[in-house]
Amino acid sequence: MIQIKDIDDDNILRTDGLSTVQVDSPQRYAVNQGDVLFLSRGRQLTATEITQPLTDIIATSYYFILTPKPDFLLTGYLAWSLNQPKFRHRLAVVTNTTSIPWVSRADLEELQIEVPTMETQQKIVHLLALYNKQRSLTIDLIDKREQLVTAVCNQLADGALDKEV
């Protein structure tokens, strides 16, 4: 079962820690590759694209499972669009607040997004994929630099390096 803790800060589903539950009618809550999970409760009402193949996975009731028609709306575009400031501003108008902000399915269904041509959606999704790859590589590079600096500092502290760095 997908819970809030299973979506990371980058809105990526992490399946390695999913909880196991028994549900009488799991089809209603089934999550599949190509769906978008929209978190309907919490401080960050966000959308997550499901990119990996899933089997026998459901989502908690905190999520709305959105399944776009692939010949009309790309999953990646839908998730991106729902996370954009323009949509978030419209969402804030219908968000209910108690101690935890939430939005009803009916209110979410009333909100509209702009749907450009498939070609434009594909360009946006491709650009996002390139950005995410660059971001991942940059984070990896920073981690490697930190490891290098730590190793050199440790060698200097241990007196293993004779020359100054």
Mean pLDDT: 92
Largest sheet, strands/sense/barrel:
3 strands, antiparallel
Instruction: Sketch the topology as an H/E string, one letter per element.
Output: EEEHHHH
Q: What distance separates the N and C termini?
A: 52 Å
- Rounded to an integer in angstroms, the radius of gyration calculated over CA atoms is 21 Å
Shape: globular
What are the low-pLDDT stretches, counting only 5+ consecutive residues below 50? none
Spatial strand arrangement across the major sheet = 2-1-3
Strand content: 5-15%
The helix content, as a percent range, equals 25-40%
Task: Tell me the structural class.
Answer: mainly alpha
Number of helices: 4
**How many beta-strand segments?**
3
Short description:
The protein is mainly α. The protein has helices spanning 75-82, 85-94, 105-110, 118-157; strands spanning 36-39, 47-49, 63-66.
Ordered list of secondary-structure elements with their pairings:
Elements: E1 36-39, E2 47-49, E3 63-66, H1 75-82, H2 85-94, H3 105-110, H4 118-157
Antiparallel strand pairs: 1-2, 1-3
Features:
39% helix; single chain; mainly alpha; 165 residues; globular; 4 helices; three-stranded antiparallel beta sheet
Structure in words:
Helix content is 39%, strand content 7%. The chain has 165 residues and is mainly alpha-helical. 16% of the residues are buried.
